[in-house]
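So, can you check this record?

>
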Amino acid sequence: MSHYVSNISEKKMKKISKIMFVSMVVFLFLPGAKAVPLTVDGGWTYFQFPGAQNGSDPYYWFSNFEFDLTQNAIVTVTDVYATTDQFEVYDNGFYKFTTSDPEGGPDYGLSPDEASLSPYYSHGSFLLEPGHHDIIGTNIRHLSTDFGGGAYIRVDTVSEPATLLLMLSGILLFLLTYRTNTLST
């Protein structure tokens, strides 16, 4: 039993070490990518990544995306061409998430909206807090695309629960005041 527990810990430590190493490499070599401003709430933005024939390893996206947030937002990444690509995504040089493990299947050439809902294509999202962000990723299934490929990213703000609660409180107060005034007259 204790041998099994130590194996789990060792596996976790290897994964954590790999993530930290890749994060460090991304952070150190980030200036090589072309910084692209990303419009928050601007819809899908296309990007490309290299393949084995490009002689690039690791297979970092050709662009990193910079933007500032004043409220929480969700970043979504989806593949749209080869159904076997999968990505690791980083923010400010730190690992954030890995897109879904795609089922694979026919390459339909779907729109980003369709591909982000399809189990055949790799996709994923994560929540960002307010502040400056610099997003970049790497294709971790690089053998699926010898000459590279393309995918999409988008950033959409999310309304804060406190704002919604404040609005509902205001509506309720208005209705109570209106009802009281109507009953008084």
About this structure: The first strand starts at residue 34 and ends at 37.
